[in-house]
Design goal:
Layout (H helix, E strand, L loop, with lengths): L1 E2 L5 E2 L1 H18 L4 E4 L3 H12 L4 E4 L15 E2 L3 H6 L3 E4 L4 H8 L12 E4 L5 H13 L3 E7 L12 E6 L1 H6 L1 H7 L2 E6 L4 H29 L4 H28 L12 H17 L5 H15 L18
Parallel strand pairs: 3-4, 3-6, 4-5, 6-7, 7-8, 9-10
Antiparallel strand pairs: 1-2, 8-9
Helix pairs in contact: 10-11
Bound molecules: NADP nicotinamide-adenine-dinucleotide phosphate (NAP).
């Protein structure tokens, strides 16, 4: 038993209790309070990650039933947007689009409550949408960070969760722990608020390239009676090759190395030859060619301009500004 400074004796149980209450104060009082507006699939995942990390979290959702399961995890469900904003220092918005964000934040009774808050817009949108929202938020006396989530909800709160943030650096640095709770791979990528959404769209273009390619591969496999399990196995085997080609394309385009050289993996010529086989097969099997006809048009423009034997990267000169 120790003698406390007050002269009173503290039992080990009392000391434990004091330690626990100090930890509680540290865990909650030292951390900013956060509200999440929008608890769809992604917003719910964000709120769950914040709760797991010990943040006092308030949630609001237009359809209240979708927010209620979060109460069992410790969240406070706010009945109105204004009450959610009043409850927090940081307001994370994750609704379907920026028009929905505007409808929520610009409502007459809500906008005056934003003064002094940090608004973190994690809804997907355009660079212009982010810049415009940032200006409007600043005019309300609040700070703003825009973000793009490059992950599905199951990645949120994990080390592999990628979230790009852009805007002023100071509110990011001051709240880095909050952002890290949402994803281990959170990155502040620049001061232009539109940057996160711009890079998001670029990465999504890569993703849809692969997903629509997947749809074509499935259509061809089905038409030719190829077992989809076999297609899956071959995808696994060739994915590193394709990944290497995309990385090389980005690198060569960045360096402007369009002419074939000793490091060229494949010029346009063999690509176009193999592409003809795919087109012929699709035609023979009446598979929809809407997308591949677009590829064909790009190939043709480049070849007509004399690039048949250039590196595949030369095509990038035909996919920029129309
Ligand atoms: P979701 O499950 O469909 O949820 C949409 C959310 O937006 C719901 O909370 C919905 O409220 C709310 N909402 C829509 N219109 C509204 C309005 N006018 N006023 C108020 N609330 C409104 O979609 P999600 O998957 O969570 O996606 C949310 C955002 O995260 C999107 O911008 C999406 O692009 C982005 N994101 C999602 C993923 C993903 O894998 N899911 C990945 C990256 C980024 P109700 O419940 O009342 O309808």
């Amino acid at each position: 038993m120790r003698i406390a400074r007050s002269g009173r004796h503290h039992t080990s149980g009392q000391r434990r209790q004091r330690r626990a209450s100090r930890q509680w104060i540290w865990r909650f009082a030292m951390k900013p309070s956060i509200s999440v507006l929008g608890t769809g699939r992604m917003g719910s995942a964000l709120a769950r990650a914040l709760l797991r990390a010990g943040y006092r979290t308030t949630v609001w959702n237009r359809t209240k039933e979708k927010a209620e399961p979060l109460a069992a995890l410790g969240a406070t469900v706010a009945p109105t947007v204004r009450q959610a904003i009043d409850a927090a220092e940081i307001v994370i918005v994750n609704v379907s689009d920026y028009a929905a964000t505007a409808a929520l934040l610009r409502a007459g009774d809500v906008a005056p409550g934003l003064r002094g808050k940090l608004i973190v817009e994690l809804t997907s949108g355009t660079p212009e949408g982010a810049r415009e929202t940032s200006q409007w938020v600043a005019a309300q006396g609040a700070r703003y960070i825009d973000g793009a989530i490059l992950a599905t909800p199951d990645f949120i709160g994990t080390d592999a969760g990628t979230i790009l943030l852009s805007g002023a650096l100071a509110p990011f640095t001051a709240n880095e722990n909050v952002f890290r709770a949402l994803g281990g791979n959170v990155q502040h990528i620049g001061s232009d608020e539109g940057l996160a959404n711009a890079l998001d769209s670029a990465v999504l273009a890569l993703m849809w390239g692969a997903l629509f390619g997947g749809l074509h591969a499935i259509a061809v496999s089905k038409a030719e009676d190829i077992d989809l399990g076999e297609l899956g196995r071959q995808w696994k085997a060739t994915a590193p090759v394709i990944e290497g080609l995309v990385a090389d394309l980005i690198k060569r385009t960045g360096a402007g190395r369009f002419a074939s050289d000793a490091e060229t993996l494949s010029s346009i010529s063999p690509h176009y030859g193999a592409f003809q086989h795919l087109k012929e097969l699709m035609e023979a099997r009446s598979i929809d060619r809407t997308v591949v006809d677009g590829y064909d048009a790009i190939f043709r423009r480049a070849i007509a301009s004399g690039h048949l034997h250039d590196d595949f990267a030369a095509l990038s000169q035909f996919t920029g500004k129309a």
